[in-house]
Amino acid sequence: MKKYIYILSFFIVFLTACDERGFITYHGGRFISFMTDYKQDSVISSFFFNPSLTEIDVPIVLQLAGLPLEEDEKFSISVVEEETTADPTNYSIQPEYTFRAGLATDTITVKLLKSDLLNEGRVRLVLQVDGSDILQPGQSNLRKAKLIFSNLADKPDWWKDEIETVYLGEYSAEKYQAFIKAVGQENADLSEKESTEVWDLARKFKYWLREKEEAGTPVLDADRKPIKVPVVG
């Protein structure tokens, strides 16, 4: 009899623990959350490198845990006012979003709006999943997302370590602007690119700089010297 009591007790504790973490439990359910822990990761954008734009659509991925959706389901997100430093005139979120049926992940878009307020420095927009009657907020550490943006020439998070020592060298706003011109806006984010692709883009940038210099129109860095990169090849 004691054996069965122990097994039953373990089973109850297991289900309770799963429920507290926001995972699917024995009675089913559907939970949505962002993909990354907002205390460790953030989405960083700047209008500085897109001077012609007055707004930026930022894609944010959410994930579904639990029972798959059999049809599209509406849900909402909201701004965490006490953690947000961005002015309401600098962002726009929709009253409702849709998580599509049959998907394990889906993407929503949050709009960032340009203004002179962003010239003063970085601002922070923190969002949280509110869910719906069908879609409940998931794991507590994944219920929020953080967006940081400005009009300034912010150094991208990925421009460090090997990117700096092997491929592009020390960061400067002038170098980053030149890199975007050389490889195109769609290729200038190296955060998720494979090393071979990073090498190809860095070499393309290197040859572009060389052509400019040979043509008598060198691209200058912050120190007014021609921009150089360490990539080999």
Write the layout of secondary structure elements.
Elements lengths: L1 H20 L8 E5 L8 E4 L8 E12 L6 E7 L11 E2 L4 E3 L5 E9 L9 E9 L4 E2 L6 E7 L11 H7 L4 H11 L11 H20 L19
Structural notes for this entry:
The chain is α+β, with helices and mostly antiparallel strands. The protein folds into 2 domains: 28-150, Immunoglobulin-like, CATH 2.60.40; 155-233, no CATH class. It has helices spanning 2-21, 162-168, 173-183, 195-214, and strands spanning 30-34, 43-46, 55-66, 73-79, 91-92, 97-99, 105-113, 123-131, 136-137, 144-150.
User: What distance separates the N and C termini?
Assistant: 74 Å
How is the largest sheet built, in terms of strand order?
5-7-3-1-9
- Going by CATH, the homologous superfamily of the largest domain would be hypothetical protein (bacova_03559)
In CATH, the architecture of the largest domain is Sandwich
CATH class of the largest domain: Mainly Beta
Number of strands: 10
Main sheet: strands, sense, barrel? 5 strands, mixed
Mean pLDDT: 87
Short description:
This protein has 233 residues and is an alpha+beta fold. The chain has 2 domains: 28-150, Immunoglobulin-like (Sandwich); 155-233, no CATH class.
Features:
single chain, 233 residues, alpha+beta, Immunoglobulin-like, 2 domains, five-stranded mixed beta sheet, 4 helices, 10 strands, disordered N terminus
